[in-house]
Design a protein that fits this description.
single chain, about 130 residues, mainly beta, Lipocalin, eight-stranded antiparallel barrel
Length: about 130
């Protein structure tokens, strides 16, 4: 999968949450109004596999995790490279009741360290 910033929609049952995630070298870090998503996703020939930990950070958020505050998910799905999007499903280890559907769409490239990193008044080339 291409490194970058992604929009995500994470749904479980009749609840859904949207947020953003950063993917760099297979590592995912992101979140939304109620949850943090962290893990690893690897893609080969359009098939995506990985693991994702989903943690509630906002106790007032509705959650598809049931009574759990953290769920460790096995992730499987497909990447549509031409559309820069993916559809994934996650199942919690040992908890058949936690099942998430994840849609993602690439938003843009990551900022790089160096002359255009925004320090000392400089601006990243993609932001001008």
């Amino acid at each position: 999968m291409q490194d970058g910033v992604y929009w995500l929609r994470v749904a479980a049952g009749d609840t859904a949450e949207e947020g953003v995630a950063v993917l760099r070298r297979g590592l995912v870090n992101g979140g939304g109004p109620g949850h943090v998503w962290q893990g690893r996703l690897l893609e080969q020939d359009g098939a995506v596999r990985g693991t994702l930990a989903v943690r509630i950070w906002n106790p007032s958020a509705s959650s598809g995790l049931g009574m759990f505050k953290v769920a460790n998910l096995d992730i499987r799905g497909r990447l549509d490279a031409s559309a820069r999007s993916f559809e994934l499903e996650g199942h919690a280890h040992g908890h058949h009741v936690v099942h998430l559907r994840i849609s993602g769409h690439w938003l843009g490239e990551l900022a790089e360290d160096g002359p255009g990193d925004g320090r000392n008044g400089s601006v990243h080339p993609g932001l001008t």
